[in-house]
Amino acid sequence: AQKITQTQPGMFVQEKEAVTLDCTYDTSDPSYGLFWYKQPSSGEMIFLIYQGSYDQQNATEGRYSLNFQKARKSANLVISASQLGDSAMYFCAMREGLNNNDMRFGAGTRLTVKP
Amino acid sequence: EAQVTQNPRYLITVTGKKLTVTCSQNMNHEYMSWYRQDPGLGLRQIYYSMNVEVTDKGDVPEGYKVSRKEKRNFPLILESPSPNQTSLYFCASSPHDRQAGRNEQFFGPGTRLTVL
């Protein structure tokens, strides 16, 4: 079974608008971490934001925020005020357990920002 | 500058010709990992290492080998490459924090491998 599911292969958003990229996860471990990475066309993987399973508040990093709904096992990435440079592939990932560095990645969502 | 480096960045080879992709990190991280990225499949883990001389299989280890003789280096070895190993490969590292910190993985720039 897929641990991380990203159901949107591609998304379009108008410049300056907000966009939500979906991510659902599956785990029975109460301790886990959720990550989002950005991969621009140049190929590198850029860490964006992290949410721990015990964190009380949704994570935010500048224009990025994570809509964490624990009961629904979802960790959607919200990008506010989209910019042309936000066009990229976005990956959701999960690390399970306290003493574990392994990550499992979703298939990714390709975001295109239209001018 | 803290970084993960990979070499080569691009490689075209032929079936059966042994190759090694090097990976090195300068952040003194205990944990290192190799992934392959294929369209529609995201990143899949090939092998990982928790520390020197400690390696283990990930989800797709067939056809690959690794070694961890030094903390900073984690080479990926393809003894007899085949066309289905054509892919984009990433090396990554992270600290191993037993206090369950963020421990995000830092990625190398990627190696695009084509096996003819």
Outline the secondary-structure elements.
The complex is a heterodimer of chains A (115) and B (116).
Chain A: E1 4-5, E2 10-14, E3 19-21, E4 24-25, E5 32-39, E6 46-52, E7 60-61, E8 64-69, E9 74-79, E10 88-96, E11 104-105, E12 109-114
Parallel strand pairs in A: 2-12
Antiparallel strand pairs in A: 1-4, 3-9, 5-6, 5-10, 7-8, 8-9, 10-11, 10-12
Chain B: E1 4-7, E2 10-13, E3 19-25, E4 31-38, E5 42-51, E6 54-57, E7 65-66, E8 76-78, E9 87-94, E10 106-107, E11 111-115
Summary, kept brief:
The complex is a heterodimer of chains A (115) and B (116). Chain A has 115 residues and is an all-beta fold.
Fold and architecture overview:
The complex is a heterodimer of chains A (115) and B (116). By secondary structure, chain A is mainly β. In chain A, 0% of the residues lie in helices and 50% in strands. In chain A, strands 2, 5, 6, 10, 11 and 12 form a 6-stranded mixed β-sheet that branches. In chain A, strands 3-9-8-7 form a 4-stranded antiparallel β-sheet, with no helix packed on it. The model of chain A has no long low-confidence stretch (mean pLDDT 94). Chain B is mainly beta. In chain B, a hairpin with a 2-residue loop joins strand 5 and strand 6. In chain B, 0% of the residues lie in helices and 49% in strands. The model of chain B has no long low-confidence stretch (mean pLDDT 94). Chains A and B meet through strand 5, strand 6, strand 10 and strand 11 of A and strand 4, strand 5, strand 9 and strand 10 of B.
